[in-house]
Amino acid sequence: MARPRLVGITVMPEYFQSESVNSTLDRLEKLAGVTAVTTSPYVMAPADRRTGFREPPIDAGAGKVRLLDRTLWGKRELWARTAPSFQPNLELYRGLRYQPPAADDLTREQGPLVGKFIRNAQSRGLKVYLQVQAAIPPGYRVQFGRPDPEDCPRLPDGSIPGRRLSANGSLASPHIRDYTLALLRDLCHRYPTVDGLRLDWPEYPPYLLDSIFLDFGEHARRQARRLGFDFDRMRSAAAALYRRLHGGLTDGDLRVCLEAGSPSETGERLLPEAGGLGEWIEFKAGLVESLHAGFRRAMNEAGGERMELRPNAFPPPWNILSGLDYARVSPYSSSLSVKLYTMHWPMMLRFYGDSLQQANPGVSEELLARVLARLFDTGQEPPPTRLQDLRYPTPEEPHPVGAAAQRRKIAQAQLQAGSTPVCSLAHAYGPPADFRNRLQTAREASRHGFWINRYGHLSDEKLRIVGEVARPV
Predict the structure, then answer these.
(1) pTM of the prediction?
(2) How confident is the model over 370-380, as pLDDT tens digits?
(3) Are 369 and 387 in contact (CB under 8 A)?
């Protein structure tokens, strides 16, 4: 087997702030044999619980078991604050609802390290990318930033979900879109030598059951009219399915779901009379496609024609619910990175299962667990028979997913993406032996190479595993 075309690792700035730029790059090259790195345009400093956010992310409480493998300023868990790594060009944001955070003393003291990391990595022959959030102003990092209520995605009844893992704004909001496009232009000007931009969550992240039933706010209504969709018909269908799942679900329904081929087919089987469900899925895909078209256009207009656009994407079948149709975003993308964040899969199924069981206390828990694992094809062995079998693994536990299921997801994504390369995007969280198995699966799944998220979960032992898995055999 030849060496993968791409061996990439996401290295957030706090690590080369803590370990130094050249020490970090030396370790990545000598131990892991990387060919590409991704970082982000911010810098970090320790803070307290009142003013900071937790690192690593707590994932709506389910990830509170998660600790860093690499200590950060001597700690495996800490609270931190951030600042932009550069002075934003405020002219690009003039008149916009959302404004970038101001450069401060942390920017002036530590911000130049991001430019140094880019230069030194490229001088070693590595490709370098910048990653930002697609719909969470200010966009530099996933844990902070929150849109105004007017720009939040809405449920069919017009309300904002009470609990969300992601803070994504409505993809239909012109305010959210305009800010992100200004940010991409700013980055193209400030860091013109980077090889490309990676956009995270350029979709509706379907972590919780309510997160699937978006987006029905006024921004979405106006976009539906512009794109030629019947907004009221879609909303009525989504509301009917929401009601069915929140109080009208039976064991007979669950048996029907076991025979369905996908979550969208499940909805059609449960409510065959509710026309508009398919149109709603198409509408979300249209919003996501137009978002990507805007990304590419903004980069080109800012002189970034040669830069690659590499969106991160949920795997099948979650991408159907998130709105990211691989075929529709491929024309604007240099490559797609499909997430194999396998510690999240049981967490998401548990979130869905808890909501459904609470709303439908009479249904069989065993049937419900089987349906969720079947519909989302997680390949867990043995198959779950209780909701408590679905949970976020601890740092010492293997991820309860199957290798064949991971390969199927990448193969399906590549089939739909056509000639646009699909890379596996694995996560470093978990014990070394399990990480090796999952990384080997990620390598085998894509002929275009793989990314690994989070240097902070890559001990030196795991970095050596990366080098061994990437080595030609």
Answers:
(1) 0.95
(2) 999 999 999 99
(3) yes
Mean pLDDT, the chain, rounded, equals: 94
Position 463 confidence tier, pLDDT thresholds 50, 70, 90 = very high
Which of 75, 43, 12 has the alpha carbon at shortest distance from 67? 75
Spatial separation of the C-alpha atoms in residues 106 and 81, rounded to whole Å: 10
pLDDT-based confidence at residue 423 (cuts at 50, 70, 90)? very high
Is the pLDDT score of 240 beyond 90?
yes
Band of the pLDDT at 1, cuts 50, 70, 90? confident
Pairing of strands 336-340, 78-84: unpaired
Phi, psi of 227 (to 5 degrees): -90, -5
| Residue in the structure block whose two tokens are 């030598």 | 193
Range 7-470 has CATH code 3.20.20.80: yes
d(CA 413, CA 298): 26
CA 200 to chain centre: 5
Give φ, ψ of 80 to 5 degrees: -145, 160
Letter for the amino acid at 98? Y
Instruction: Report residue 26 as tokens.
Output: 């030396």
In the numeric block, which tokens belong to residue 171?
């993809």
Give the start-to-end residue ranges of the domains of the chain: 7-470
**What's the pLDDT band for 63 if we cut at 50, 70, 90?**
low
Q: Are strands 450-453 and 422-427 parallel, antiparallel or unpaired?
A: parallel
Question: Alpha-carbon distance 20 to 56, whole Å?
Answer: 20
Where is average pLDDT lowest: 65-69, 284-288, 454-458? 65-69
Cis peptide bond prior to 138, omega within 30° of 0: yes
Give which of 226, 416, 383, 388 is closest to 316, Cα–Cα. 416
Using CA atoms, how far residue 152 sits from 7, 232, 303, in Å, is 36, 19, 31
* Residue 88 identity: P
